[in-house]
Amino acid sequence: MRIIVAILACALASCGPNLGTHRLVSARSASELPAAVSHSRHDPGYVVLTFDTNADINADNINALYAEARACDGSDAGRMTAFGPFTDTVAPQDLPLRGDRAAVSRYLVYLPVTGEVWGDRGKDGKTPVIGTFDLATNTQDICFNLEHTGYPAATRTGMVRVAALVLKRAIGAPAP
Q1: According to the model, what pLDDT value does residue 41 have?
Q2: Does some domain include residue 10?
Q3: Considering Cα of 113, then 74, then 59, then 97, what sign does the dihedral take?
Q4: In 10 A of CB 147, how many CB atoms?
Q5: For residue 139, what is the enclosing H or E element?
Q6: What gap in Å lies between CA 142 and CA 160, rounded to an integer?
Q7: 12 vs 48 pLDDT, higher one
Q8: Cα–Cα nearest to 47, from 26, 65, 66, 68
Q9: For the chain, what is the domain count?
């Protein structure tokens, strides 16, 4: 009985590993995604955000990490595509790394400059487009977090707010 109670408590409390506190270090532009991304996107460029954390996001107990991005107003229409996290290296790799368990506390997230926002998959199996985004004309701050899956409930970091002006400067767009 104690084991069942412990499992239920863990499930309700999201007993995943501590992902720490995160902070934006820098933002810059890039023309391509890292080679570690295996698909054929042809976006007109990316904003590469570098984050620091006080946690090891390459630890043994971390098995799947995903970057999430959305307008800070929290609306579904404000969701954006985000790729990462990746190592902050010359040839960025997906985190966590499978063969190397060296501690990682700095990572990269790639955000397309423009893109479509997809809704939830409908009963017909199709995923509708519910909006678009363009960082060159965007006036809202963007909020980022990491999600760790692999537990009964996902563990998420706190949101990190990135000012719209920081994103505009990274891609060379005029400030409002």
Answers
A1: 72
A2: yes
A3: negative
A4: 15
A5: none
A6: 8
A7: 48
A8: 26
A9: 1
Alpha-carbon gap, residue 123 to 168, rounded angstroms = 38
* pTM score, whole prediction: 0.83
Residues spanned by the domain of 122 = 2-171
pLDDT at residue 40 in the model: 74
Encoded tokens for 34: 């890292």
113-153 residue pLDDT tens: 998 877 777 788 887 877 788 999 888 899 999 988 866 56
Q: Is residue 176 in a domain?
A: no
Those residues whose C-beta lies under 8 Å from the C-beta of residue 111, and which sit 6 or more positions away, are: 46, 47, 48, 49, 69, 80, 81, 82, 83, 135, 142, 167
pLDDT exceeds 70 at position 94: yes
Please report whether residue 109 resides in a domain.
yes
**Can you name the residues that pair with 134 across neighbouring β-strands?**
114
Contact 84, 68 (CB under 8 A): no
Asked whether residue 35 is assigned to any structural domain, the reply reads yes
Q: Which residues contact 15 (CB under 8 A, 6 or more apart)?
A: 151, 152
The strand order across the sheet containing 106-112 reads 22-30, 46-53, 106-112, 83-87
What is the three-class DSSP state of 126? coil
Contact 66, 149 (CB under 8 A): yes
